[in-house]
Design goal:
- This protein folds into three domains: 1-49; 97-245 and 395-440; 255-387.
- It is rod-shaped and about 175 Å long.
- Mean pLDDT is 77; it is low at 1-12, 32-54, 117-132 and 338-346.
- Helix 9 (276-307) packs antiparallel against helix 10.
- By secondary structure, it is of the alpha+beta class.
- It contains twelve helices and four strands, in the order H-H-E-H-H-H-H-H-E-E-H-H-H-H-E-H.
- 70% of the residues lie in helices and 7% in strands.
- It has a four-stranded antiparallel sheet with strand order 2-3-1-4.
Amino acid sequence: MAASKDAAVNKPDSAQAADKAEASAKSKGIAVLEGLLGKESAPVIPLPGRRNKIEPAKKAHWTARWLKKLRWRHAIIGASFLGLVAVPATLASLYMAFIATDQYHSSASFAVRSIEGGVSSDILGMFTQASGASTVSDSYILMDYILSERMVAAADRKFKLEDVYATRGLDYFYGIGSALPIEDKLDYWHDMVDVSFDHASGIMQVTVKAFDPKQAQEIAQFIVGQADSLVNSLSLSARNDVLRAAQDEVLAGEARLSKARAGLRDYRDKSQEISPEEGAKLAVQLIGSLEQQLTQLNADLATAKSQMSEDTPRIRVLKTRIESLEQQLAVERQRLGTGERSPTAGEPNSPDVAGRIAQFEELETEREFAERAYTAALASLEKARIDANNRQRYLALFIEPTLSELAQYPNRLLNAFLVTLGLLFAWGIGVMSYYNIRDRA
């Protein structure tokens, strides 16, 4: 009985053990299947009695994977910093410290001045006083000329820029190459020559850099000489333009005066009188004389009628003389311009004195105006000729090209710092961009 009871008691225990073994086998099979399918992160249904054993293993697995990825990412970031920032910055610093060649500078200051500008009592006012918009425009023209291909070509012909700025030692960054086109030489010229202009004072400053202080000074002197020649040519061109315009005005005035004089001479040839005004005066005097005689004859006729009859010879003679004087008076008055004008009035040989006077006055007015215009043109031409003999604009050089004793360029510490800062900035942007894209993905 006892044996049967023990068998009955142990039978459920064996069934329970069998159930646990079957569940464990199933969980292992599910884990193997998920591992084969790549579903490591798939959720696992915890079974009774196995939960505390499965979760620590999973946590350890994920921690190992995260640490592996973290070490790999940090290694890439460190390598990129080393290759993109540290090594280039170190090489740039070493280049600036031991390879870059010393550069010397030469500076010159000048201003474009005009004679027409006001006179100042102090020396500073000679250069700070504004002389008009023309000198400002000339200054900007001068700036463009100094930095132009024409200046580079002239300097290259005189100094051979490829020899002056040839590479010194291993300094290939600041040196110039050989057999370069004019465009590349112009770019290098802009790096070695600096021009600044103060609009308020009108002062322009030119700074030239070179590997030798004497060569820098010679190039600066050459630039100042070329600038002075350009200002002279601009002033000469303006003076020639003014002189040419004044000469053209004189020629036009001379032609107009000649035409007016020719018209007046043609009138005098046809009218056969110097001035119709003199003829008018004589006509007025003649009319006055005829009127006086007519008045006297009328008085004599009245006296004779009171003493004689109408048929007497004296009265007939007086009447005949009065009729003749009246006819002569009418003719003279018609010639003077009173009464009806003749069809030929206005012609130089017309008996109409008033018409001849009007035509003469028109010709005379034209002649006088032409003479005055011609006189004014001659005065302008003389003034333009005097101005052309003087320099209206000139280059006032008040600081001669200097001779440097200490190399000021390149700025080694500043250049190395800027290179390092730029590389660090670019690297930081790249790293932040990577993390931004990774977080969004």
